[in-house]
Each structure stands twice: as structure tokens, then as C-alpha cells.
Amino acid sequence: MVASCLIGSIIFMFSRLFWSDWNREYPKIEFSGLDGQERQILVGEGLALPNSLVVDTLGDQLCWADAGTHKIGREYFYVATNGLNFNGESLLSI
Questions:
Q1: Exposure winner among 23, 51, 66, 94, fewest CB in 10 A?
Q2: What is the pTM of this model?
């Protein structure tokens, strides 16, 4: 169950929906297929109030601002034959 959810970005070219969950006990950034199937947690640690999700398709990264930690995060991705893959998170202080 999602207690507090903010829809961030929909990526149609990769058939994925990304959103941030502001659940105070376990905030996270998740994604799924456009039909809601194959739901996965993308980032589940080091977050407080993740929001403002932005997809940079030229730089192949998903970026967000975290109002609770005052950091900007990013997750690089690449498209492979088995789907969308992610390479790890970087956090920048703001």
C-alpha cells in the first residue's frame, strides 16, 4: 500500500512508469511497466522526501531532488536486450 505517493515521470519509450513514495518509514523510488506489473524498488536507501523526478534521455539518467536530505540524486540507466538496467546511484548535496 502506498501511503503518500507523488507521480514523477512516465517514460513511454521504455514502457516504464517511475514514481516516488513519501512513506515516512520507508521512502523510495519505484518503477513498473505501464500496466503496473513488474513493480520494483529502484532506490530504497538514503531518501527522506524524494520528489521532482526528471528523466534525462540524452544523459541516460533519472534524477530527483530530495527535500528531506537536501540532496539531488541520479541513477544511470541503459537499455539492454533484457530490458532497462540501472548502474547505481550518486547523491549530490544542495
A1: 94
A2: 0.77
